[in-house]
Amino acid sequence: MATTLAPVLSAHWDAERSWTMETYEAHGGYRGLRRALDMQPADLVTMVKDSGLRGRGGAGFPTGMKWGFLPAPDGGPRYLVVNADESEPGTCKDIPLMMASPQHLIEGVIITSFAIGCHHAFIYVRGEVVHVYRRLLRAVEEAYAKGYLGKDILGSGYDLELTVHAGAGAYICGEETALLDSLEGLRGQPRLKPPFPAVAGLYARPTVVNNVESVASVPGIVVGGADWFKQMGTERSTGHGLFSLSGHVTRPGQYEAPLGITLRELLDMAGGMRGGRALKFWTPGGSSTPIFTAEHLDVPLDYESVGAAGSMLGTRALQIFDETTSVVRAVTRWIEFYKHESCGKCTPCREGTFWLAQIMQRLERGQGTAADIDLLLDLCDNILGRAFCALGDGATSPVTSAIQYFREEFEAGCHTPADVLFPPERSALFDYTPRRTGAALAGVHA
Amino acid sequence: MTVTSQDAARTGGAPLVPAAAPPAPAAPEQTVTFTIDGIETTVPKGTLVIRAAEQLGIQIPRFCDHPLLAPAGACRQCLVEVWAPGRDGAVAKMPKPQASCTLEAGPGMQVKTQHTSPEADKAQHGVMELLLINHPLDCPVCDKGGECPLQNQAMSNGRPTSRFVDVKRTFPKPISISTQILLDRERCVLCQRCTRFSEEIAGDVFIDLQKRGAQQQIGTFDTDVLGFAGETPVGASATDTSGRPFASYFSGNTVQICPVGALTSAAYRFRARPFDLVSTPGVSEHDAQGSAIRVDHRRGVVMRRLAGDDPAVNQEWITDKDRFAFRWQSAADRITTPLVRERPSDGSRGELRPASWVEAFGAAAAGLRAAIEAGGVGVLPGGRVTLEDAYAYAKLARVALGTNDVDHRARPHSDEEAQFLAHHVAGRTLDVTFADLDRAPAVLLVGLEAEEEAGILFLRLRQAVVRHRTRVLSVAALASRGLERLSGTLLTAAPGTEAEVLDGITADAELDELVQAAELLATPGAVVLVGERAAVSAGALSAAVRLAQRSGARLAWVPRRAGERGGVEAGTLPTLLPGGRPVADAGARVDLAAVWGVESLPAAPGRSTAQIIAAARDGSLGGLVVGGVDPADLPDPALARDALEKVGFLVSLEVRASEVTERADVVLPVAPPVEKAGTFVTWEGRPRPFPQALVSHALADHRVLHGLADALGVDLGLGSLADVHAELDQLGGWDGARAQAPETDAAEPPAVPAGHAVLATWHHLLDAGRLQDGEPHLAGTAKRPVARVSAGTAAAVGVADGAPLAVSADSGTITLPVLVTDMPDFVVWLPTSSPGSAVRDTLHAVSGDLVRLAPGAADGATDGEA
């Protein structure tokens, strides 16, 4: 049986002014909160544990278990921080969610805060997306006005303040401890762990850091129950998730489906590859996850299956590249991104991405040397697992996986520029004549 | 010698200045047993793997790791392979190599370093190659070359060649962080040791990381961001994190802990190669902290000084003054031969001319004999001599000159202070130590600006505040930035009212802060530290003794100068003989006379410095023997100069030409610390012996005094350091009755007429002192002199913040820009001895005196900035 879509978070995105409180409530919003406030916080934690919800930010850590790591209340503050610093190349699920249905997130924040005993929650939004920031601010205002936030929420005696904070434009601040430093007003660089945020997070207090989609999934679990959630997805990767198709597909966009769906099924829903071209490679979860090729079209997109196939489910950011794409050029762009976004704290990531970028640029120009491919692999080996946080590890994924599947293209980089092998105009959505011809472009590099 | 050996303590009774006992073995604690490279080791719980490996002699390469700084894990050079027991008890390999500088040893852990693990070795080689891709190959011109951890570890743990053929990241060279500290960013490996030092240790964050990725760099703060008035340095400088221009007294430490040549000092940059330097351990002569230093010299010239490593005293830090101010010892005005003055027959003073030692001793002896006949000779050794030299002055005065007129206090002082020193300080060595401050629940500072007057004490206090939440309280006229960085509480006391405030610290005081202070000081382990400035506030020392008795807090005295505590122990005070023996005690005199082999010692208490000066001026003293005294440091320099002019016969023992030597009849050159061996005694009473660094003909004071006594027909028996030590050993401490506690009443605060204010003053660490001569780069980091008054006083005088304020006494006027400060009204604070603010010289005033305030002339402001 073919897997079908499972719109939960995206259920009313097509409604009129879907982002308003009115629309959200008309579609059953805040039922979950009302139910949650009648429950014991511990039961909520158990319910989320039972649902099998795993972190939707990429690592897939069981959300309920994370909440359970908080030490027993000691009378001091505890915090919920929502990681909305979505900046990974290809990843584009939280921003549409917060644009189309911000109340989903806010309801999740209130329920989660109630469950973990937090009275001041924070949403750390990527600073570049001002429109999302503004929409969130408005949504929080609406929630305050409705009495869902503030003192004595819905007469339950429970108080919660919610602060929306805009980042200042750094990918590293999506790393949870760097995010906490940034939120505290410090330089956004990852902290030494332990202590983990559950023990000493924001302002050295017990803190839960969750992804937007994870938190937004909580109201649904409270309303539908853990069993409802578990009936979606696979045994160990339960529930629904947003699959973000981008790149060379006919209808790119958000496809909310049970975990375990395959790219083949998703591509069918999305109208297939753009222009009927052949799939060349794709990322299962953003640029930090090793790439897949057409041979992986039937890999179920759940944490276990993708891992077994040599990549990671990540953020389910499915970037689709067709046969006109130079893998060398694509990887070069990603590495340039990592070089630009490396925070600089640790040597392997700071210096490694700086070097990788130069080698990749050389290969893209067709000026690589015979030793460069082995150098790339050895360099990645010297970065992977040696860096302070996962940013450095993620930077090596596209390089090593691309060499694994497309070594011959890297070898071609020793003599032929990528824009000669793969003229950029062939990837264009419409016919156009580049200002410079392929030959002229090649001439630049000659 | 007694001062260091424990043996003497056993054979000859309590030594005069006993060395600190070795630290007591740590209390039994939880331990962890694990293996490194197959070697089993047991370490206290919480020990980092890299430290445990060091103890086994296994060197793991590292850059960001520093034992006195919090772990960072930034450089990733110290990666090791780790196998750890899992929940099931089975030992399993951790998937990634671990940074040994952040990993705590765990029971049953198996660590494999580069010596036994190919994975760790490859990881380290990989990180080293990455560190080097952007590092310039400028070792031949880099100051760090030859002593560079990056260079050394690249050889031991790096690839022979680099595979990097691409474009290096470069920066314009270098950035001046201050006039002293320079930063070559392209050499930096971003280990963050410097930023962590300034944040964790000194607390004056003047540099920080900027930008990110390969463009990440250590940077200074944007000078244009915040314009404001404050403790600005003399030289050009950037602002720190608090928005204040950077004027750190500890910045030189960042140069020393930099594992590459990124941070250098203007004073040493391009001056020497490490392998040409000879290193001699030393002790800083600049304050009573006894900081261990390393003197690096080349062919008889000191090129630089570094912090020595002494966990009990200065850990690994020293002040910038300790580090950079050493050229005074080889200044052009060094006196190299004895000088005698021939008085022409016309009665004029005549000129000094070089003479042989024999002639000089003869001339000095003849003059002193005549002076003894003419009323006696006073001895002013100055506050900077070593214990051995002080002892020689003390003995010379009693044995050869037959007087107790000896006083090393070349600063404002009082009889109350002398009594306090005799009662509470002399002979009580190591009563309160640096280690006690670490664990003290509360420390009260009285007349003591720790950062300005006792730099290492400041760092140790700050460590106690940061690590153990020690509460610091200060009785002072204003909360300095140093006190702020100690998170200190100010118990405001206008100058002269210190005794009143100290007596007010009781459980039933009216002010909450005084009640709270009483509670804190009653906590076991609390400490009261009084500075030398407490002497000028009548009754303050008496009140401090009462407070200590009342609260149970321990009391210690923290002088500024390196020789003060040694002088107290050696007996260079008019009422004290060596070892804390009171002059007034006949038994003590008999005791000492026996050791010294003389029939008797003068029984009458001597004159204090001020009295000696006065007596020399009015002719009741016939002569003076003066050591390292600068008349400008005395309470009334004009009076002192006059006395030096008028005194019948003046012998000067000096390193450099001074105001004393130019008035002396005989000048006997003596060796600066770097050219002699000796012992400084810290404020704790800890002996700090140091060897002679440079080969020199110069003689230590005690040898000169021995020769002088010889010419007077007295065998002082102090011709060599060994002789001095033997005698100090034989002498031992005093176990008889101590002097009574001082019970001086506080003076009534003077009425302050309109247009007047009470003067408050203390020294800046970096000021116009002669021991900082020849150090323009250091002088640029000194705080710019300002006059501080309250907003109310400024308004009453009619000066705006930043406008010039003229502070006058009958003798002169000091004009400095005003810095409006939260402090009592009708009090004005001036730096004691900064350029343009020579308080004693210009105003002839000390703290608590009345001065006149008036708006300064506009051009007068520049005087203060000279």
Q: Would you write up a description of this structure?
A:
The complex is a heterodimer of chains A (446) and B (866). With 446 residues, chain A is an alpha/beta fold. Chain A has three domains: 21-230, NADH-ubiquinone oxidoreductase 51kDa subunit (Rossmann fold, 3-Layer(aba) Sandwich); 240-322, Ubiquitin-like (UB roll) (Roll), CATH 3.10.20; 327-441, NADH-ubiquinone oxidoreductase 51kDa subunit, iron-sulphur binding domain (de novo design (two linked rop proteins)), CATH 1.20.1440. In chain A, 43% of the residues lie in helices and 11% in strands. Chain A is built from 18 helices and nine strands. Chain A has helices spanning 21-26, 31-37, 41-51, 63-68, 94-100, 102-116, 130-145, 176-183, 197-200, 212-230, 263-269, 303-308, 327-341, 347-364, 372-383, 390-412, 418-421, 438-445; strands spanning 79-84, 120-125, 161-166, 207-211, 240-247, 253-258, 279-283, 292-293, 317-322. In chain A, strands 6-5-9-7-8 form a five-stranded mixed sheet, with helices on both faces. A four-stranded parallel sheet of chain A has the order 3-2-1-4, with helices on both faces. In chain A, helix 3 (41-51) crosses helix 10 (212-230). The longest helix of chain A has 23 residues, at 390-412. The N and C termini of chain A lie far apart (54 Å). In chain A, 57% of the residues are buried. The model of chain A has no long low-confidence stretch (mean pLDDT 94). By secondary structure, chain B is an alpha/beta fold. Chain B has five domains: 31-133, Roll (Ubiquitin-like (UB roll)), CATH 3.10.20.740; 172-330, Alpha-Beta Plaits, CATH 3.30.70; 357-411 and 565-731, Rossmann fold (3-Layer(aba) Sandwich), CATH 3.40.50.740; 421-559, Dimethylsulfoxide Reductase, domain 2 (3-Layer(aba) Sandwich), CATH 3.40.228.10; 756-855, Barwin-like endoglucanases. In chain B, 27% of the residues lie in helices and 19% in strands. In chain B, the strands form ten sheets. In chain B, strands 1, 2, 3, 4, 5 and 6 form a six-stranded mixed sheet that branches. The longest helix of chain B is centred in the middle third of the chain and has 17 residues, at 357-373. Chain B is globular, with a radius of gyration of 29 Å. The two termini of chain B are 47 Å apart. In chain B, 59% of the residues are buried. Chain A binds chain B through residues 170, 172, 187, 189, 192, 339-348, 350-355, 358-359, 362, 371, 375, 378-379, 381-383, 385-388, and chain B through 71-77, 79, 95-97, 102, 122-123, 126-127, 129-131, 133-134, 163-164, 166-167, 169, 189-190, 208-209, 211-216.
